[in-house]
C-alpha cells in the first residue's frame, strides 16, 4: 500500500521515540521480556500494513466506541495506523454499492491473508432475518468473509460468547463466531466493551510475530485474561481481612472495602480492568465504587443478578436464609463463611464459582 | 481537569504504605550482573519493574539505594518520560508516563546510553537533508 509504517506515522507527527515508547509499554503490558519492545518496534515499523476487515453484526457499536473514543492522540489510535482498515461500516465514508465493493475488493486482493474482526453476535432464528446487511444475513456474510481470512478476532462479548443478544430467552437465536466458524484460528476478546489496549495488543502481537498470542480454553489471550479481576483488585486486602461493604453508602463503602457482598463478580471474571483500567488509566468500575458485572464472561447477563453476592442462590425465596448465613459469617473466618454459602448455593442448584475463590 | 478542581474531601486517608516485600534486594544483584555483562560484552539489559511484585516501598528503597546520578533526560513523547542516570553509572531509571501523567511502565536499563536517547540513523538522515535544504535556500 505504502512505505514502511514508521514513515506513515512520521507524516502524522508521531516520532520514532513515541513509537518506541509505545512498544515498550505494550510489551510490558503483554508480559513479554523487556527486549521485546525494541524487537516489536523494529518489526512493526517495517511491516506492510495488513488488510483488516471489520464486520459488525448484532451489536450496539459499543466495541467500536471503546476503541475509537479513547483519549487522543491515543496509542490505540496509533495501532489503527498500523493496519489497513479496508471495511468498517461505522467509520468508513463509503456507503451502499461502494462500501460493498470495498469489502469484496479487500477480500479478493488479500485472499487468505486478511484479518477479520467481528463484533456482535450472529442471529440464526428465522434464517438469520433478524440482522441483515444489504439484504444478506449476518450468517451468510460471516461465512463468506471467514473463508479467506488468515484469522478471526471476535471483538466483545457478543462475538465471543453471544453476549446480550443471547441472553434469555434469546429471541433471535444469537450465537458466537466460534459457534459457526470451526476451521479458522479465532481469538476471543470479550468484554462489554473490551479494553482498547487488549485489542491493540493482539494486533501488535500479530504484526510482530505473525502469529496470534497464546490463548486459554475460552480462546482468550492469556496475557490479558490470565487472572481474575479479584486476583488483581486493589480492594483484595479487605476481602482477605473479611471487611465488606454491606450497602453502597455505609461506612465500609466509604472506606473502600470489598464489594463482594454487593454482588461483585470479580472473583469469577477474567479480565484486565484492575491493571489496565479505563478512560486512559483514570479508573475502573470497582474503583468507582461498583462491583464488577462480569461482562467479559459467557452469559454474564443471566448470571443471577448484578447485586446478588456470588454464592447467594438466585431464587428470591431463599435469599433470606442465605443472607442470614452471610450475616453469621461476619467476624468469622471467611473461608468458613464461603463453605457455608457454597453449601447453601449448592442446595439451591446454583453455580457458585466459589471454588475459584479458595486457593 | 484535575481532581483538585472538584471540592472532594477525602475522609479515609489511604492506609500506610505496605512495607518491604523483600523482592528489591535480589534486583540489586541482578543489576550488578547486568553491569558485568555490559562491561564484558557490551550487551545491554533491561528489567521491567512494572512486571515484578514490588510494593511502592520496595521501589522507594531501590531508588534510594541506587541514588541519583549526574544526567537526567526528559522525553516528551505522548506523555513525559524520564530517563535518569542513577549514582551507579550505566544504570538508568526509566519511567514512562501517559498524557495524563500516570506512570505506564517503569524500567531499569543497564546501558552506556538508554536506547530511547540515541538518535536513529534514518532520523539523522532526514535532519541532514532538511538542513541541506535550509542552507541551499539561504
Give descriptors for this structure.
heterodimer; A: 359 residues; alpha/beta; Rossmann fold; Cytochrome-c3 Hydrogenase, Chain A, domain 2; five-stranded parallel sheet; two-stranded antiparallel sheet; 17 helices; 9 strands; 39% helix; 10% strand; B: 138 residues; alpha+beta; Ribosomal Protein S8, Chain: A, domain 1; five-stranded antiparallel sheet; 5 strands; flat
Percent in strands of chain B: 15-25%
What is the averaged pLDDT score of chain B? Answer: 87
How far apart, in Å, are the first and last alpha carbons of chain B?
45 Å
Helix/strand class of chain A: alpha/beta
CATH topology of chain B: Ribosomal Protein S8, Chain: A, domain 1
CATH class of the largest domain in chain A: Alpha Beta
Tell me the strand percentage band of chain A.
Answer: 5-15%
**CATH fold topology of the largest domain in chain A:** Rossmann fold
Major sheet strand order of chain A: 2-1-3-7-9
CATH superfamily of chain B: HupH hydrogenase expression protein, C-terminal domain
Radius of gyration of chain B equals 20 Å
Number of helices of chain A: 17
Class by SSE composition of chain B: alpha+beta
How far apart lie the N and C ends of chain A? 52 Å
List SSEs of chain A in N-to-C order.
Answer: HHHEHHEHEEEEHEHEHEHHHHHHHH
Query: What is the CATH architecture annotation of the largest domain in chain A?
Result: 3-Layer(aba) Sandwich
Total domain count of chain A: 2
> Order of strands across the widest beta sheet of chain B?
1-5-4-3-2
Low-confidence stretches of chain B: none
Number of strand segments of chain B: 5
